[in-house]
Amino acid sequence: MFRIPALPYDYEVPNLSQLALVIIDMQRDFLEPGGFGEILGNDVAQLGSIVPTLKGLLNFFRQNGLTVIHTLECHQPDLSDCPISKRKRGKGSLTIGDEGPMGRILIRGEAGNAIIPDLAPIEGEIVIHKPGKGAFYATELQDSLQKRGITHLFFTGVTTEVCVQTTMREANDRGYECLMVEDCTASYFPHFKQSTLDMVRAQGGIVGWTTSAQEIQKALS
Ligand code: C5J
């Protein structure tokens, strides 16, 4: 049993084989100029600050042979998996599927849709392509976790209050023990990140726990 100091109280991992690190949407479309994030009017520089810490945690998982899952928010080139409501949202100069500086916005396989090079998946890691904000909606994630006997999930990535929180809530409702890694998640709006951390661990951990990457590495070493 591993015990990680966390809020609102210690988080326990019974067995490392039941654990996965989930890295949400660390893709160029959200972190780099010219992608979906910037087109929606956001300051993308806000998100880059977590990369070194997240890379350290990812390396720790790799060195210890632990399960790593990457997700990407993306759509098929024919947009058959993109609701009209999602395409119309935002009123920016470009929308999902349009040609942008890094290829078609949020389309699977385009340059802008790739995970940033620092965190690129390696062989053996699970990659989930998701059309929604939550990683369980319309994907094979649940099957993949069940097949491996995974019950404990650490959530990282961007953006805290959108895809990270949505996925953590979906996982919580499915019975997974969920922990958000505070210094490995970011938002375009720092106060939204703080509110998300506060709300997931309120009421005795209504959605789960939060802690830092350092506490995780100390506890699991
Ligand atoms: C957004 C995400 N913010 N990955 N996607 O649209 O959070």
TrEMBL record:
Residues 20-207 form the Isochorismatase-like domain. SUPFAM superfamilies: Isochorismatase-like hydrolases. GO terms for molecular function: hydrolase activity. Keywords: Hydrolase. The keyword Disulfide bond does not apply. Gene3D superfamilies: Isochorismatase-like (3.40.50.850). It comes from the Bacteria. InterPro entries: Isochorismatase-like_dom (IPR000868), Isochorismatase-like_hydrls (IPR050272), Isochorismatase-like_sf (IPR036380). It holds the Pfam family Isochorismatase. This is Cysteine hydrolase. It comes from Thermostichus vulcanus str. 'Rupite'.
